[in-house]
Amino acid sequence: MTAESVSRYPFDRAEALQPPEEWAQLQARCPVAHVQLPSGDTAGLMTRYDDVRLLLTDPRFSRGGEGAARVSTTADGGIFARRRASAMSIAGEGHRRWRRLLSPSFTIRKIEAWRPRVQRMADELVDGMLAGSSPANLSRELGLPLPVRVICALVGAPSEDQDKFAYWSQVMLTLTRYEQAEVERAYEEFGAYVSKLVEDKRAAPGDDMLSELTQISDSQDGRLSHEELIATVQALLLAGHETTSNMIAIMVAMLLAEPERYAAVVEDPDLIAGTVEEVLRLDSTLSVIGMPRVATEEVDFDGVAVSAGTTLIPCRPAANRDPRKFPDPDRFDARRDNAGQHLAFGAGPHFCLGQPLARMELQVVLGTLVRRLPGLGLRDAPGDLRLRTGLLSGGLQDVWVTW
């Protein structure tokens, strides 16, 4: 790696919806940049599309390991560094087996069967928002409750437990906000909750995905173990609550910040799918620090040698704005031919298994809003929006809307 000065990461930015200036600067001149993480450890930051995709797909880069840089300020270094069983820690043949067993439950066809139910949930929540007064906090009225209701229905968990999921997920995804004792308690409580849920579904299966998963078995891979099911449900609840909830608010803010984007979808609902993909590509707020990779051998990046054992951070949001891949990358274009090649859901063997569900929910939300609230607007100026801080999952603080 080069000997340039070490910058603190994440970088600051002028406005919440605008990416840090450093991303484009590094893409142009520096394939591997030294950065200091909140933990105090250093790593190499990768911002170019091809390099980031290589990190995500090439077996020469492992997910963590002994000596990997810690990310968070907690003693354990954060969720990526923990050695407890989790969907993030399953690797190698164990991960391939896990995906083979789970994949049939996450096909586009299976997820699409949920669309009418998700649509009813979205309409009910918009009804509730409209029953109140304008302006309304869209994050609280729609962004948070919809994904929680969906994921609770999928795994058969009581939706009234959503406050528990919100607390556990925030603590587990801490960057600088929580202490180690709180993290340990959250893991213990969340693990016990999910373990009981799995046991209940094994004993009395219902009409939900978790009940289906408890019955999965095939001649090659056997069955998902109790620990694997716990890891799977935790990953679903974390992603279903934190990531999709935040992404709904980000999508609405990004479209309303430049009203012609929203107006275009009102005028032509056929743009919904393309608009969702462009929002996913252009979002710079949700992934605060990408999941670290560790080089298992020396690798060259455009003349910069990275030695074995080096921790590298794949910056997917920066890669999604790489002009080498996406011409005029900062321009919002719902008809962009290759927008769906973004890396928002990762790539390779760890490509997000739940991405069909996330995409469907975002499409339902956008379709519902443009149909029912064509005059939707932001209460606040885009420059007044604020980032959520202290967590690995970023996003925006409350997004208030008017109609």
Automatic annotation (TrEMBL):
Q: Which InterPro entries match?
A: Cyt_P450, Cyt_P450_CS
What this protein needs as a cofactor is: heme
Q: Which UniProt keywords apply?
A: Heme, Iron, Metal-binding, Monooxygenase, Oxidoreductase
What this protein is called in its record is Cytochrome P450
Family note: Belongs to the cytochrome P450 family.
